[in-house]
Amino acid sequence: MEPLSAFEIIRQVFVQFTPVWISLIVLFAFSLGFKRKLGLYGFVVETGTGFTGILILGFWLFTAIFASQISPFDPLGQIVSMKDALPGTIEPISGLPYLFGGDKLARDVFSRMVFGSRIVLIIAPLATMLALSVGIMLGLPAGYFGKRIDSVLSFLANLILAFPIILLFYLLVSPGILETPIPYALAGVFFLFPIILLVTLFWSGYRAHPLQLGIRLVLTLLVGGWLFATFVFDRDPFHILRVSPSTLNIFAAVALASGPGIFRIVRGLTLDIKTREYVQAAQTRGETPWYIMLWEILPNARGPLIVDACLRIGYTTILIGALGYFGLGMPPESPDWGTAIKESSRLLRAFVHPALPPALAMMSFVLGLNLLADALREQSLKD
Amino acid sequence: MLNFLIRRLGVMALTMICLTFMVFYLVNLEPNLRKLAISQTEMHASDEHIESWLTRNGYRRAFIERYAAWIGVWPKKPNIDTETGKPVSRFSYCSEPAESVFAGVIQGDFGCSTKFKTKVAEKMLPALRATGLLMFWVMVTMVPVALFFGILSGMREGSKLDRTLSVVSIVTTSTPEYVSGVVLTIIFGTWLGWLNGSAASATGDGITFYNFTLPVITPAIYGMGYIARMTRASMIEVMTAQYIRTARLKGLGFYAVVVKHALRNALIAPFTVIMLLFPWLLTGVVIVEVMFRYQGFGLALVEAAGNNDIDLMLACSLVSVVLVLATQLISDVGYAWLNPRIRVQ
Questions:
Q1: Which pTM value belongs to this model?
Q2: How far is B258 from chain A, CA to nearest CA, in Å?
C-alpha cells in the first residue's frame, strides 16, 4: 500500500487527537467565560505566556487521559514488518498507518509518544509533591525555631546539594541497590512526610473541634496508609495500583534530589514571614508553634512556592528523562520519553524519525510548565 | 574575612568526610562486592570461592578500617595468598605494595580500575583533561552570549527586544541536553552534514570544529537561558537604582550609563550563578559525553557505574564532590570580594 504523504500524516495526527481538541475547547470556553470568578487562574489565563503554557499543559494532560483512545497501536506491541518503517507507512493487517513510523523494534512511535505522556504526567508531579512535603515539613521548623535545629537541617541539606545529581542517581538507582533495604527505607521515610504534614496540619488547626478533627484524621490515615502500603511495600490491599520497586526508587531519588532545594526556599520564606505582625499577633494569642507555622506562615508563603513547584515539576521531568536516558530505573521497553530518546539517539545516522517525537514532546511539556511559572510569577509581582 | 574563610574550610572538610563516607558505603554494598568477586574469579564460582576471594583481598576487613585506608590515614595491609604465603596484588594489571604502607587518596593512590585494567590515576588524568577542555569551551561560548542577551533585555524592561529574548531564554531552559543534542545532531549532522554527530575522534586526532561543535553547543544552550534570565533580573534591578537616574539626569547618554554605571553592578549576581553552574554543568557534561562518545570524565563515570568498577567510581565521586565544594567556596568568596557592602563588613 502507498505510504501517506506529509500532508496526509498531519491531517491524520490532527484527527487522532480529536478528544484532546474537544477537551481543550471546553476547558478554554470555561476558563475564559468564568475568568472573573477563578481568582489567580483567571488572571493567568488572560496573559499571553499563561495562555500558551496552559494550552500546552492541557494538551499533554488530555493526551495522557485519553491515551488509549488516541493511540492506534499498542505502545509495546511489535509488528515485525514495520521495523524502522518511515512515517506514514501503512500497517498491512489493520490497514492503519504508523503515523510517525516504526522504531528499531518495530513499535509505533506515535503510540509510544502518546503513552509516554502518561508515565511522565504521573511520576513528575507526584514526585515533586513528595519533595515539596519533605521540604515544607523540615523548612518551616528550621526557619521558625532557628538555632540548633536550623544548623543541623541546613548542614544536611547542603550535604545533599553538594552531591552531583548524576552521581546520586547512579548510586541510588542502580540495579544492585534494589537487593538491599536502602531504597525501601529511604522511600518509607519520604512517604511518611505527606502523612505527617497533613496530620500536624489538622491537629494544630482543629484541636477545638474534636468531630471535625476526627473525620479529617481518620480520612488522612486511611488514604495515607493505603498509599503508603501501595507505594512502599507494593502491597495494595485493594489490588488497584501496582508500584514496582524501581519506580519507587525513582520517587525516592527525585525527592532526595529536589527536597533540599525546596527546604532552602521554605526556610528563607519562613525567616522573612515570621517577623510580620500577624505572626506576632498569633504568638501573643498563645497559639502553638505548629499552628503558626502551618496556618499563618505557610499560606502566606504560597505565592513563591507555587511558582517554584511549577518550575520544579519541569525540572523533575528533565531529571526523569535523564534517568531514562541513562537506562536507570525504567524498564528498557518503557515508552517514557527519556528511554525512547536513548533508544533512538544511537541510530541517528540511519533513522531520525523515532528520535524526534519524544524529544519534542519532552521539550514542549517542560516549556509549558516554564511558561506557566513565568506567568504566575509576573502575576504575583503585580499584587 | 580570614575568619570566614577558616570557618568555610572547616565546614567544607566536614562535608567532604560525610559525603565520601556515604559514597564509600554505597559503592561497597554487599551486592556490588559479590559482583566484583564473581567477575574476578570464574563465572560459576561457588559461595566459598567468592568469600575466600573477598577475604584474601581485604574486602572483609572492618568497614571503618577500609575507609581510613582508602583516605590514607591508616596503613593499607598487603594481601597474603594463603597457599604461597606471599603478598599478591588484588588485580593482575596493577601492582600493589608488598608491605604495610599509607597508600590512600591523600598519598595520591586511587586504586585500580577493573574496567580499564589500569591504575585509576592513569585513566582519570587524561579524562579530566578532556572534560576540562570541553567545559572550558562550553563556558567560553555560553557565558558571553548569555550575559549579552541578559543585558540587552534587562536594559529596557518590557520592550519588544526584551520580550523576544525572554521567550528565547525560556525555550532554551526547557531543552535539556539529551533533547537539544538529538535535535542538533539531526539538523547539522544527518540532514546538513556540516558537523559530526560523534566526538569519538576528538580523543585520538585532537579536537576540530567538525567534531567538537555539537558537544560544546548542546550543554551551552541549556545553561544559556538560565544565566540570561539571572542577568536580566539583576540588570532590571540596577536600572531602577537612584544613581542610574542621577547619571541620566546629569546628561549622560543611555549607552554610556549602561556601560559605565549599570554593567559593573549588574554583573555581581550572575557571577555567583555562573560559579554555581559548574556542578550543574557536570551533569550536562556526562550526558553530552555519553551522547557523543567523548572520552572524558563523564564517560568514565558512566562506564565505572555500569561495570561495577569500585575504585574508579570512588575517584569519580571524589572529583565531583571536590568540584562542587570548590565552586561553592569561590562563589561565596568572590561575591564578598566583588560586593563592597559585604567586603567592608
A1: 0.87
A2: 25
